């Protein structure tokens, strides 16, 4: 069957399933969001209230990991989308409609404290949940893969440079120290993309989205993902205040955070590791997937690295690499 025919057949199957699940033979569907891999989301038309159909085509997106993590989070008191009907074999779910804007679309300087307080409270709840014994861990293999994204896609493909022996050694040493720090931290449930664009401002929320890659990982990873976001920047004094607020809430909830000074260092280092990885991911989206808009945020990441890396002597190899090679090459590409 040709690709258009397959697409049409899936659309017809999706609509028929939605109408049956809703018990409304005249219901329609319209696209609710894009840029979600093979998974797609559709809002019902002609129903009150509206619902969302998640379509995870079998063989392309297995819906079971999403469902499993969703159920674990809900049992732990985390606000997640409610599942109203499910057909795992065909890859269809009927979900509540949480509305339109994400926290990223409504947050501003005036309301940021309230949104961050709610997001931090929800994160502490998430980090307190006991995960199943077979939950995947944020370990060496995942960190090595993340490290490779920066060199393969941002340095080689986007900047068009091959690092000389000295720079290769600098990057390898810095990445090793960042990985060792991440691996040494206490481990808690880690969303890995806990940021405003994956949070919905609803009652009892924010509701948490895009949680299917949750692992057992470093305790500082999600707080810094939220507060030093890939798409939003805040004045550093506000970020520091929010990190301290998170730490106090985590201590009160029994989350295994280290002492405040160590936690703030771990958050800085997790932020460096994460921003290097995201530079690689955004370069890959541009060069491989034809999505150039993400690289517009690259200067934000480099500014963050400039602000944080010089604070730590152990990260001097990375500072030297950035100053000697990465920033001059980026300036040429951006010119």
Structure notes:
This protein has 335 residues and is of the alpha+beta class. The protein has 2 domains: 94 residues, 2-Layer Sandwich (Phosphorylase Kinase, domain 1), CATH 3.30.200; 232 residues, Aminoglycoside 3'-phosphotransferase, Chain: A, domain 2 (Alpha-Beta Complex). 52% of the residues lie in helices and 12% in strands. It has a 5-stranded antiparallel beta sheet, with helices on one face. It has a two-stranded antiparallel sheet with strand order 6-9. The chain has a two-stranded antiparallel sheet with strand order 7-8. Strand 7 and strand 8 form a beta hairpin. It is globular and about 65 Å long. The N and C termini lie far apart (46 Å).
Record the SSE blueprint.
Layout: H1 3-22, E1 28-33, E2 40-45, E3 51-55, H2 63-75, E4 83-87, E5 92-96, H3 103-106, H4 112-127, H5 140-158, H6 165-184, E6 187-190, E7 199-200, E8 207-208, E9 215-218, H7 221-227, H8 236-253, H9 260-287, H10 298-308, H11 316-334
Antiparallel strand pairs: 1-2, 2-3, 3-5, 4-5, 6-9, 7-8
Helix pairs in contact: 4-7, 4-8, 5-9, 6-9, 6-11, 7-9, 8-9, 9-10
Summarize the structure.
By secondary structure, the protein is of the alpha+beta class. It has eleven helices and nine strands.
CATH class of the largest domain: Alpha Beta
Mean pLDDT: 93
Rg measurement, Å: 21 Å
Molecular shape: globular
Strand residue percentage:
5-15%
Number of domains: 2
Oligomer: single chain
- Which stretches are poorly predicted, pLDDT < 50 over at least 5 residues? none
Q: Kindly state the number of beta strands.
A: 9
Distance between the termini: 46 Å
């Amino acid at each position: 069957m040709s690709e258009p025919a397959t697409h049409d057949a899936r659309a017809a199957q999706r609509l028929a399933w939605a109408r049956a699940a809703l018990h409304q033979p005249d219901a329609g569907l319209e696209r609710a969001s894009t840029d979600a891999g093979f998974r797609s989301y559709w809002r019902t038309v002609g129903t009150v209230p509206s619902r969302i159909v998640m379509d995870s085509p079998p063989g392309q997106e297995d819906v079971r990991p999403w469902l499993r993590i969703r159920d674990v989070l809900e049992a732990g008191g985390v606000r997640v989308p409610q599942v109203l009907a499910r057909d795992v074999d065909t890859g269809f779910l009927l979900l509540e409609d949480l509305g339109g804007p994400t926290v990223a679309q409504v947050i501003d300087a005036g309301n940021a404290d309230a949104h961050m307080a709610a997001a931090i409270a929800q994160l502490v709840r998430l980090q307190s949940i006991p995960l199943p014994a077979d939950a995947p861990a944020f370990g060496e293999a995942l960190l090595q893969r993340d490290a490779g994204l920066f060199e393969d896609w941002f340095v080689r493909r986007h900047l068009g440079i091959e690092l000389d022996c000295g720079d290769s050694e600098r990057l390898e040493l810095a990445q090793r120290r960042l990985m060792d720090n991440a691996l040494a931290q206490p481990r808690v449930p880690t969303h890995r993309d806990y940021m405003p664009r994956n949070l919905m401002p609803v009652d009892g929320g924010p509701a948490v989205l895009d949680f299917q890659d949750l692992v057992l990982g470093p305790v500082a990873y999600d707080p810094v993902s939220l507060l030093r976001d890939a798409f939003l920047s805040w004045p550093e004094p506000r970020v520091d205040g929010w990190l301290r607020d998170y730490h106090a809430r985590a201590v009160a909830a029994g989350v295994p955070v280290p002492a405040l000074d160590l936690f703030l260092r771990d958050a800085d280092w997790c932020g460096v590791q994460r921003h290097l990885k995201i530079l690689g991911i955004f370069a890959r989206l541009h060069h491989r997937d034809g999505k150039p808009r993400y690289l517009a945020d690259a200067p934000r990441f480099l500014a963050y690295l400039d602000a944080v890396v010089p604070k730590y002597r152990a990260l001097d190899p990375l500072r030297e690499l950035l100053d000697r090679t990465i920033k001059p090459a980026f300036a040429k590409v951006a010119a």
